[in-house]
Q: What sequence folds into this?
């Protein structure tokens, strides 16, 4: 039964992602926003909903390690696995504004998280990392400022390009938005079915909760981003996929951990230096890829390297 539910969830993921991408392209064209910004905002926030639900519920139940593990694991998965697979399917260029603004901000958000954890530990003289309500408020303020600046900068610089086509072109805006909302609902429902079945199967196979949170839960909550990004790449719209990944990572750190710690401050235990190093390194890796050979793009070779690093990391978690 769990295997059947697993495949049902996968089918819903594929169907929801397909129409979410189609609708997002039309919304971008009508709003005169770039595909990247639509991926960064509407699609990014929507596909990050599973991480938000799991992290907030974990924080409320006093499981801060699961909340942080979900965020860190998802961020690593988003870049190394999702962006890597996207590049393998469809190599993509990285726009100048993305290199100057969005990717550096992604790096900043990951370093900012670790810095706050270390500062709090020194100030309160504790033996473990923790996130307080003050930290949560700071995260949310920074997040609001970034989103506001990004949308205004996109409008001012007129980055919009009608680079993708959609089968929903010509439909009224209200209908397109409705299709996007329903598609997102199907996508998230399918992801939830897939995730629940995966966790049950993993427990039956004897996996620990720590490994499950950093691997299956992380991948499971990233499934909406994964499927949406792959569908976008197959439809020749990798910029939406890139915006989805960068946006989801920023939302994971600033919005999700901000809300989680604001609702219920929590201590963080059970994480190794390797987890934090790879968390930051993965964000820097995208920036480095933009400058290799001066081509300002991520090609298939780099995509394969991303995926190989993720496989090695996951293997390390499963074997330790």
A:
């Amino acid at each position: 039964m769990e295997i059947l539910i697993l495949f049902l969830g996968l089918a819903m993921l594929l169907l929801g992602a397909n129409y979410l991408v189609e609708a997002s392209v039309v919304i971008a064209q009508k709003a005169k926003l770039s595909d990247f910004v639509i991926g960064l905002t509407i699609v990014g926030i929507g596909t990050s909903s599973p991480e938000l639900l799991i992290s907030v519920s974990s924080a409320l139940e006093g499981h801060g390690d699961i909340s942080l593990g979900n965020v860190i694991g998802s961020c690593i998965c988003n870049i190394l696995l999702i962006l890597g697979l996207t590049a393998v399917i469809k190599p993509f260029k990285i726009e100048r504004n993305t290199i100057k603004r969005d990717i550096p901000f992604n790096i900043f958000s990951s370093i900012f998280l670790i810095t706050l954890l270390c500062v709090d530990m020194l100030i309160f003289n504790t033996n473990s990392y923790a996130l307080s309500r003050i930290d949560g408020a700071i995260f949310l303020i920074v997040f609001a400022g970034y989103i506001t600046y990004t949308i205004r900068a996109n409008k001012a610089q007129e980055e919009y390009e009608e680079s993708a086509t959609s089968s929903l072109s010509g439909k009224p805006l209200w209908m397109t938005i409705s299709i996007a909302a329903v598609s997102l609902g199907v996508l998230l429902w399918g992801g939830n079915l897939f995730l629940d079945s995966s966790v049950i199967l993993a427990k039956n196979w004897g996996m620990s909760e720590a490994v499950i949170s950093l691997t299956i839960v992380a991948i499971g909550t990233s499934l909406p981003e994964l499927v949406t990004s792959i569908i976008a790449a197959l439809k020749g719209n990798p910029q939406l996929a890139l915006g989805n990944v960068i946006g989801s990572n920023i939302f994971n750190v600033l919005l999700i951990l901000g809300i989680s710690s604001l609702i219920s401050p929590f201590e963080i235990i059970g994480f190794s230096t390797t987890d934090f190093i790879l968390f930051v390194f993965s964000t820097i890796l995208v920036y480095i890829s933009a400058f290799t050979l001066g081509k300002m793009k991520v090609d298939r070779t780099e995509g394969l390297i991303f995926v190989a690093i993720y496989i090695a990391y996951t293997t390390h978690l499963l074997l330790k």
Notes: The first strand starts at residue 92 and ends at 93. The first helix runs from residue 2 to 31. Strands lie at 92-93, 129-131, 266-268, 297-298.
